[in-house]
Amino acid sequence: MQCPFEMKPRWERRKDARPQELLAAALDLFVERGYASTRLEDVAKRAGVSKGTLYLYFTNKEELFKAVVRENIVPALGEAEDIISTFEGHSAELLRCVVMGWWERLGATKASGIIKLVMAEAGNFPDLALFYQEEVISRSTNMMAGMFERGVARGEFRPIDVRVMTQVLIAPMLMLITWKHSVGPCSDEQSDPMVFLEAFLDMALNGLLPPPAKPA
User: Fold this and answer.
1) 3-state secondary structure of 55
2) 10-68, CATH topology level
3) Which of 6, 79, 141, 146 is the most exposed place for a label (fewest CB within 10 A)?
């Protein structure tokens, strides 16, 4: 006999603890302390619940971290992929749109600290590094490579080594994140990330655009 009561998701069963609150607290602490130094009891305390309540939703710290990534970073990749798949303009404008959108959607937010955390601690937590590689890095790399391939195929970018150019493009963006969450706040030379990205795009696009056609 089927139970007449509708089964609710776990996060609807307890009004005093919602996964969103736990994920927000976890994001704060992972960014502030790093992965190794973040304790589940501290996440629960920050969220205003007991540690036992946290275990109703996340079995361990690794699963909690994965949920934070999937909540804060993975959706932005999906948004960018949607933009790329429907964009009808010049590939240079598409590249600008994605790079600037990346900063506004991730770089300028607290979630950018997760990117720096992975870069700093991946060597000590290989399982997390593999997870991040599969769900974020590979997907990001394929997305950027697809933009370059689009530009070359349409004659809007000159022929390039797409794999290498993808790495060249991503590296300064990761450096900007690292700077923001390390020595940047202590530096006397404060730089505007948007100005940095504008200069970077100017340099990149002037190198990518094909030479003007010679007059007949």
Assistant:
1) coil
2) Arc Repressor Mutant, subunit A (1.10.10)
3) 6
Distances, alpha carbon 53 to alpha carbons 35, 46, 161, in Å:
21, 13, 51
Phi-psi region of 48 (alpha: psi -120 to 50; beta: other; left: phi over 0): left
Q: How confident is the model at residue 16, as a pLDDT?
A: 46
- Cα gap 102→99, rounded to integer Å: 5
| pLDDT of the residue at 3 | 38
Residue stretches of the chain with pLDDT short of 50: 1-17
The residue with tokens 């940095």 is 196
Q: How far apart are CA 176 and CA 172, in angstroms?
A: 6
Coil, helix or strand at residue 11: helix
Which pLDDT belongs to residue 167? 93
Tell me which of 1.10.357.10, 3.30.1330.40, 3.30.1300.10, 3.30.420.10 is the CATH number of domain 73-208: 1.10.357.10
Alpha-carbon 121 to chain mean position? 16
